[in-house]
Structures
1.
Amino acid sequence: MVEEEQTAEVTQEEPMAVEQPADVKQTESTSDSESNTKYQNAAEKGKMDLGFVDIEQMREKFSKLLLGEDMSGGGKGVSSALALSNAITNLAASVFGEQHKLGPMKEDSKKRWRKEVDWLLSVTDHIVEFVPVQHTARDGSNMEIMVTKQRKDLLMNIPALKKLDKMLTDCLDNFKDQKEFWYVSKDANESEKGVQRSDKWWLPTVKVPPGGLPEESRKWMQKQKDCANQVLKASMAINAEVLGEMEIPENYIDTLPKHGRDSLGDVTYKSITVEFFDPGQFLASMDLTSEHKILDLKNKMEASIVIWKRKMHQKESRSSWGSSAKLERRELFEERAETILLLIKQQFPGLPQSSLDICKIESNRDVGHAVLESYSRVLESLANTVMNRIEDVLYADDLAQDSANNTKSPAPDQTPGNTHNGTPSSTTISDIIGWGSDQGETEMIDDFSDNRLMEERADNKVTRKPPTILTNHIWKS
């Protein structure tokens, strides 16, 4: 039996935040920063001691959360669950920002994050369930009594998320004294600019030494990337589990079409319902050239899964052969759609939340689920951002190494298959038969663009994202 302890003390600590469907409003983050700066300045001037500053900050924060979006105090604010979710999201937005560079957090930002996230997580200490235990009475008799214990999902996941949080901040701290690469402002001269892997023009460019990173530094960078990848996968798993436990809101179900085919469209539906289905080939045939198209496909898949599950649940009592055959087909299609959805989440971890996820978060009334979902979501986003910044450096290193290798390659008039003026010669019989395959492979490896294509195809890590897709941060969800 799960029960949330409803005491006057917990009621005072239970925050009510300004409703933000999943997007972070810059105004609130700015307000929190200004408030934080105000108390810091006051403490520095000796008007307040640090303990009193913390108390005043906590009182101000929880007072704003208790009011919700109804600043008049009329009691029309959002639920406690959504309030806490928004508060954690907004805190991460104001502390971490977009993480433009690889480097340690500012000391005051780190202290603020630790302090305020602990305030918000403290609510979960009072979410308990009754568990039976054996109790020995004074007369020596044994009896079974019920005692309160922190809810099982919170007891397991809150410490795990705190550990992932520390791993991620430690990973950023590891870049404190590195001098193997550096950043150049986007406003610098073209000759001074470095390399930018994606089309995020507002980010600083990365520069590495002319010959690339040393082998030891390259291995160390890969180790940091693997660490961030572990945090990403673990936080994604917790987030997906919590969202799966949330009930599907009725207002989302009311927006769904009657049939899964209507949600997917004829072309996508036929691709899923073929006799021999390959999810990888299906994704390769879809247009995933923009974030909007990927999110649209994700929304369609989730909607079709909900439709098919509801129909199977409604007709599971029927025992006719025809109904059983239809149920089996729907179950097969639903499994295929879930496989596609899983691949999308793995290949594009930085996607904004889907329509179903947003509806679940807004309609959720479980405070424990809200805290777990929002905390895992901000860690997932930060880990994904750190991985992208590391991949920016590794990409610049690849370019530097390729450029160094090209300068060491033979002159054009000495390269097999080329004429003295450097232009490719005509195809020979040896080329057709394949006798010159070694030379062809050497030329392909020397060619930078083909080399990059080979590396991307060979990279089977599901968390790598195409550079043309702009990933959004959790605080806009």
2.
Amino acid sequence: MNVMRVAQVSAPGEKFEIVERELPEPGPGHVRVAVEAAGICRSDAGFVAGAFPGTPFPLVTGHEVAGRVDALGEGVTGWRVGDRVEVGWFGGHCGHCVPCRQGDFIDCADLRVPGWAYQGGFAEAMVAPVTALARVPDALSATEAAPLGCAGATTYNALRHGGAHPGDLVAVLGVGGLGHLGVQYANRFGYETVAIARGRDKEPLARQLGAHHYIDSTADDVAEALQRLGGARIVLGTAASSDAMSAAVGGLRPRGRLVVLGATPEPLRISPHSLIMGSRSVHGHPSGTAQDVAETMAFSALTGVRPMVETLPLDQVNDAYQRMLSGAAASAWSSPSADGERAPGSQRTHRPRPRTIGGDLRRLRPRVRLLPPIRGTTPCRRTAPSGPGPGRDRSARRMRPRRHRPIRGTRRA
């Protein structure tokens, strides 16, 4: 019998333990993924505590998974053994509820989240439906790709659908696992980026990531500071603090939007008057589908957005989990290798290379598609300038309708 190692929690609130399980075989429409890196997300704490309804125990969580296709189930097309893939928060959808029938798969009534609906990525292998797979670009390593399946797709999607335009003031509340990616994406989108955090110790990191301004929420009123900068078009609430997000609403410009990403059970304390006067709004945002994850990774590879990670072997999953809870690591990854061997025990920190919007995107050029001429017209030619001179073609004409032969038996008008 083929076996694999997994990191499981036997009961709510207990620690992870390494056990062996039978290597699963993929069913129809599924693939088996050999896990190379699995991210520890803040949401995993909710699963470990049993806060999500129906959480199965013993639990193998993990919904930021990068690896390679190891086996194909019946009927799988478009994927081959060895393909590099990512499985994020979006682990599949039912296909028959109203949101699914409207194409809104991320809001599926029976959304299948890895580690909740089925075994997650804190293991040497996992099985996932093909609808959950996103292809990993060659430019990204497994440890760089893993967090983009949830933290990356969440911040990237929230910003690109937030309604801001290049040059608008966009604030990122929190510079942690979500926020350090949000600052980078905001900079690459061409926004005037504001990072908001507690204390001055995170300012150097925030500016390295691309923030143009920094607000210390312990020393300044966040709303007033944002208004002095002109008011924010978007405040991206990545910090899991209802009080911090509520305090930032006053810093929105007219028709500005607070986008809530940080999950917390505490209610927001926002006056209806602060929303009505200025037409401000509050908007919740989930993660993204497999296609959103693929687009997040492609954009990150193109523009140099990279997560800050620390790599630890699967055996040290409890240490990695505690570092994530304490905030000592921006993102922590439990990383078994693809062949099932243990990853090196040494820790390694990846820091993103600081880049600006002009460095990478300036080389992009729009693609022009030449359409065939409309039937009944001659191709458009450039009209030659009047007057004599070399290279002047007096025979050039502007586009004009082509004359058609009259139907036999009729006269030309």
3.
Amino acid sequence: MRQDGTADTTPDPPRVPEVASAGTTEVSGQNGGLGGARAPGGPAASEGAKDPTGGSRDAGEPEAAEASAGLHNGLKQRHMTLIALGGVIGAGLFVGSGVVIGETGPISIVSFLLAGGLAILVMRMLGEMAVARPAVGSFYAYARLSLGPWGGFTIGWLYWYFWVNVVALEAVTGATILHAWLPGIDLWVISLCLMVLLTVVNLFSVKSFGEFEYWFASLKIAAIVVFLVLGLAFVVGLWPGAHADAGNLTEHGGFAPKGLGPALTSVIPAVGFFTGAEIAALAAAESTEPRRAVARATHSVVLRVLLFYVGSIFLIVAIVPWNSKSIGDGPYVAALQQIGIPAAADVMRLIILVAVLSALNAGLYSASRIVFALTRNGDAPRGLTRLSGNGVPRRAILLATVLGYVSVVFAYVSPDTVFSFIVHSYGAVALFVYLLVALSQVRLRRRLEREDPGALTLKMWGYPYLSWFTVAAMAVVILAMAFLPDTRMDFVASTLTLVVVLGAYAIRRRRGRT
């Protein structure tokens, strides 16, 4: 479908041939050059291939189109633009932000600004690497290239585990929302139906994923923009019956009613709300213009964070007293009801459902693509490499859904034990991934400057100082989780997940498969 709703008759781009054969291209770890890709059993390709960025490209290092390794380049620029814009708008913004507001007060604006700043820095670092070296698996390939095989293995499986759990949680959340409208149907039935629906979407083609995500993102963005317009009109007194008043920012105990400490500790959960911003870099390998797509996503992340998160949180605390009970029940609903929008609760329930379905859709896509990338270096069973006629890694998708189904079952069979552990066990996993992304950029940037400076067309600001600051800040956020009562369980369970992944790598290495 086009943006105007008419049928899109543009044929799919032709399938891109694989580099060597699926699963044989290997990105070198600590010893090779920046290219280092080779086909086992054959000599490395000639060196000095021309890189489209203007610099030289190492042998075996595929260009953007070739980097798809058999995946179709079915994502158009409009798909990538909306995936980038809508990637950070999830249920966490619409619902979870109320918890942060209730724990901090109006100064929650600062909490989201700090958390968003970290997300912006990590995305800039990832963008630098993705523009310089478009690759299947994105940060998995960069971690393997810069940190070595252990880095790629760890970041890949952690990211996969994160999204598999998100799939299950979003299916349960979506079922809970729909159950209010369909009380006669069991929650577990609705959960499984949602998973089956979006599994079929992902199995069909990457273009179908892109179309669904395009419209999901369009609705989310439209909802946020409408909220920003209505909220601003209300605050400045342009709304009928309203007068300019932002007293809620300083009344009810002041701007920081609980002090500076809660505002800083609330950065920890707030950082998690920005997870999803990196999907555009992961999806770039299946777009027609990967470098352009990543560059746009990287540049727009500042606007997304400042406008969608910080802007909307500012309006919420300006419209509704921060200590109002309605804030905890749903901050956007509370603000819309204060403005006087009829049926605000139902409208927001629908928008939250769209956000949940978008996360479920993106979760299946992300989990399947990262495990597909893992197969390319033997970090996952090579049987998962097989593609359908539409260039879709169906086995990788089904692997994610099978574990998602298991988690959904536990959500209803053992919600207080097994499912509770699953929820806690991925709480800090995304932060581990972001930390490894930051470390990868620090090392890869040095190698790019030495071996291929022409590829650095999009650079991290203030390197190396701002890069190391980002590494330190992410480390502080993770360590702080261990000392806060509300996040300690997440830290312990997530650390256990990390230990299991590192143990799996040690076993793999001992078997001589690295």
